[in-house]
Amino acid sequence: MRLLLADKPASCAAVFLIAMLLCALLGPILLEEVASKQNLRGRNAPPFLFDQSWTMWLGGDQLGRPLLARIIVAAANTIAIATGAVIASMTIGTLLGLAAGWSRGRAGQLIPRIADVIMSFPSLLLAVIVLYMLEPSVGNIILVLAITRIPVYLRTARAEVLEIRERMFVQAATVMGASTRRIVFRHILPVILPTLVTIATLDFAFVMLAESALSFLGIGIQPPEVTWGLMVAQGRPYLVTAWWLSFWPGLAIILTTLSLNLLSNWLRIALDPVQRWRLETGGKKNG
Amino acid sequence: MQRFLARRAVSSGVSLALLVVAVFFLSRLTGDPTDLYLPIDASAEAREAFRQLHGLDRPLILQFLDYVGDLLRLDFGDSIRRARPALEVVIGAFGWTLQLALITMAIVSGAAITLGSLAAFHVGGVFDRIATFFSLIGASAPDFWVAIVAITVFSVGLGWLPTSGTGTLWHWVLPVAVLFIRPFGLILQVVRGSMITALGSAYVKTARAKGVGARAMIFVHALRNAMLPVLTVIGDQAAALLNGAVVVETIFGFPGVGKLMIDSILQRDFPVVLAAIMVTAFAIFLMNILIDLAYAALDPRIRY
Amino acid sequence: MAEAQPLLEVRNLSVTFDTAQGPVRAVRDVSWSVGRGEVLAILGESGSGKSVSSSAVLDLIDCPPGRIESGQILFEGRDLLGMSRAERRTINGRRIAMIFQDPLSHLNPVYAVGWQIEETMVIHGTSRAEARAETLRLLARVGIPDPAEAAAKYPHQFSGGQRQRLMIAMALALKPDLLIADEPTTALDVTVQAQILALIEELQAETGMGLVIITHDLGVVAEMADRVVVMNRGEIVERGGAAEVYRNPQHPYTQRLIAAAPGQGAMRETRQDASPILSLRHVSKRYGAFTALHGISYDLHEGEVLAIVGESGSGKSTTARLLLRLEEASGGQALYRGQDLLAMSPRDLHALRREIQMVFQDPTQSLNPRMTVYQLISEAWAIHPGIVERARWRARVAELLAEVGLDDGYMSRYPHQISGGQRQRVAIARALALEPRIIVCDEAVSALDVQVQAQVIRLLDRLKASHGLSYIFIAHDLPVVRDFADRVLVMRGGRIVEQGDVRQIFEMPREEYTRNLLAASLDPDPEVQAQRRAARQAMETA
């Protein structure tokens, strides 16, 4: 905690992310109705009209729905999809990576090939192709994004295991007679977990961008469901006359990914004993 | 060296084969294949005729063998919408994508490596903070959003640049600029991190003890050691561009392979989609070999 | 050597590093000087700040987190600290040069060694062609065979000793007035160490440069130094001629340090009545075409310390790894209570793990950094249920910690929160938790400072008596073996050269190789070392 406060940008990022999380959790309950209420007089209402209800401060969309409320409600879907995809890909990827790194047999050879196949394809395109064959529902989008991100965890976990399994403390555990399961889950996993969590933070941002791009291309979430990416796409035809339709949801995406990037940067330093002093000395003598 | 290339070819061949199988079964098992090959408004008779013509009523295994046989002969069939061989259509589009990727990656790599190295040398300084801040914003920006904002400002608002197409040099400015942002941010981050490690290493200390100047220390002693992880990200980013920067190509109406793939998907032009998948996968295979060769050229400890 | 002005003089230097726990004063008010043709040794244990002042001489201290608080560094009367970066660069490498411990990480891995040596000359104004010719001459001078070919090779293609020769060639390229050597032989085998030290001495005699040698090893001081300064916790506690300081140390710290030096106690008398507890017969190990172990046979007797000594690549650690089944042997038998260890099923092996335990070289690496001391020790009982019931774990860990000399306040600490010596004690407690019969110590005290080393050896000795243990003690450091072992086995190139009682090996070695090994090892006493050197030179000229 003390370390987090030492890095001001990272503390701001954490505060912003907590706020977003609250929006995602509470937004749909409190604002669902307001956000979907059409109001023909408020069509494409410009932002910063502070005499209106606060939900209209960022303007209204093409159907006169208040943008701010829509952004808060859309946070739920956007974050739910990203969270689901990150957790699923991290779990599966890590388990496969542990198996691939530990096994000296065929599994060790074969599992990395799976990663190669998925990686020979950029995630966005893979998602496009699979969603072209499957129904674009929330579950399927999570599934597709999760599959495309598995290689990242798989490769990292495997590379780390290959290195750590040669370390002395793993050999010490072998000498004590520890079982394979014990060595992998009690000795190796805790050591590589910080690295994986750092990657996951970064990946969360990546998945969010990918989801937005899918929605933008029209093969992600379908209306009346809504995500930030979809809002940007829906605002595109009105770009010249009502820039705010696309601008605000885009800004929400940028700020969220930026916060995640900052947090991930901080995590990387905070979890690395070699670089930690940079935070601990507070950067007061930097120069 | 030859053994390495052979091994690499075999393992990529396995990957490609898995991909081929996956694509086939996904396209057959998830619904009526005529949905994939024929326009959505095709009549029931047309579907039936198509089935018989292409043997879609035969057992799955025979269909699969046919499909593999066609692939081996590089016969992807004709584009349904364009009445030209699918492969030809894809290769035409791929040329554009290749140019776009090369130009963008050359600019990105040069800028990110230089600025990242300097930021690492002045860790914590003003320059480092500015570089880090901008690279973080760059890495966080959704490209479709940047693209439409850029069009609004520079093309519609100021009227300086064309909105889409490829006619003149000016047409390239916006796509390259938009594609530049994210890879630049990501690569700069990696360069910076890797250079901080390299500059703190024992051999740089030796160089200091020898009296080596700052510039040679950064760009001669540290940079070459720091390049391996950087090459990996450059490879990943280049791969993403080679596959067609789907979103950016679509928005700017750039006739590359990404736009082609999206269009073909929306137009249900399955032969083109398949050909595009294969061509880009092959291109990425070649690029990965180049990256591996670059590793070996940079680090004498790596020998294949 | 009564020069009016010393070549280099460090005056009242204080350096502070900013850390999480607040500023740490790495050196306080340190002064020393060295003249032309003179050898000054800076002696200290890890964390004593012995390298800091020489880093300041070469402008190698990172600021931040480092900060030079006060003092002067006078080189031929001019204060280096007052000069610009650019001016100091013209001195670094040309007038003052440095060689480091661990030459592998100090040579740039991606450039050919010839290029790296040339670079020193080129940046100080020599032409490329001239530098190239000079490089070949230097490589020949430091004893690298086939210089032309060697110059095009990369650091990883050389052996440890050769790499240090390359560093020396690079440092001496411009015939500096002063050479600073920071632990130049620490990771090297004894015979290689002797060669490198001899080379440095020769080159110093040739060029008349001043030499500052930073070391933790009293033997190196005895071999090389005219004068010595002793450092402890950032301060100089004693200074004087090398021989006087050894004979008549004034400061209590120096006295303790010299008393702790191994190789001075009485040797053990071997008991003849013991029976073998473990017998190796024709054990071999091959890696592809390379044979690491050529069918070796030996016995370990009940209650004895069997030392296996040898240089790197001798196969001494391979033996241990095979016994503990960390690797599979290629052939042979290892009989323990009539059972062949090397052919056991995984199930029998699991039970047997209790009986034979291991203590590794570097406790920093052999303890899982994410487990507390309590977790590290009690894990043994989770793996082998039935030794200690869960309710008694905490009490038993406390008992074991007490046995290795730590109180139960250490239970909740993590390895990085305790010192190196304490970590090795925890590693020993962990081995004891399984109540083994045999403990294999693989270089178990090599990474420790001398005083800590002496304590750990005493601990091992006490535990042997109280727990009825037998040790296989693998080491490269002969003085430690001399003090601790009952029997000694000398290995080289995967074969046993000689085995015998400790007294026989040290006093009447039968084999040439054993004699060389003993002659190369350094004695902390400068006078003994002078005699040995004379004897060695006589042997060479004869």
Automatic annotation (TrEMBL), chain B:
The lineage of its organism: Bacteria, Pseudomonadati, Pseudomonadota, Alphaproteobacteria, Rhodobacterales. This is ABC transporter permease. It holds the Pfam family BPD_transp_1. GO terms for molecular function: dipeptide transmembrane transporter activity. It is found in: Cell membrane. It is a multi-pass membrane protein. Keywords: Cell membrane, Membrane, Transmembrane, Transmembrane helix, Transport. GO terms for cellular component: plasma membrane. The keyword Ribosomal protein does not apply. InterPro entries: MetI-like (IPR000515), MetI-like_sf (IPR035906). Residues 94-291 form the ABC transmembrane type-1 domain. The chain crosses the membrane at residues 100-123, 169-191, 212-234, 240-258, 270-298. PANTHER family: DIPEPTIDE TRANSPORT SYSTEM PERMEASE PROTEIN DPPB-RELATED. It comes from the Bacteria. Belongs to the binding-protein-dependent transport system permease family.
From TrEMBL, chain C:
CDD domains: ABC_NikE_OppD_transporters. Keywords: ATP-binding, Nucleotide-binding, Transport. InterPro entries: AAA+_ATPase, ABC_transp_ATP-bind, ABC_transporter-like_ATP-bd, ABC_transporter-like_CS, Oligopep_ABC_C, P-loop_NTPase. One of its GO terms (cellular component) is plasma membrane. It is found in: Cell inner membrane. It comes from the Bacteria. GO terms for biological process: peptide transport; transmembrane transport. One of its GO terms (molecular function) is ATP hydrolysis activity. SUPFAM superfamilies: P-loop containing nucleoside triphosphate hydrolases (SSF52540). Its main location: membrane. It is a peripheral membrane protein. Residues 10-258, 278-518 form the ABC transporter domain. NCBIfam families: PRK10419.1 (NF007739), PRK11308.1 (NF008453), PRK13648.1 (NF010167). Belongs to the ABC transporter superfamily. This is ABC transporter ATP-binding protein. It comes from Mangrovicoccus algicola.
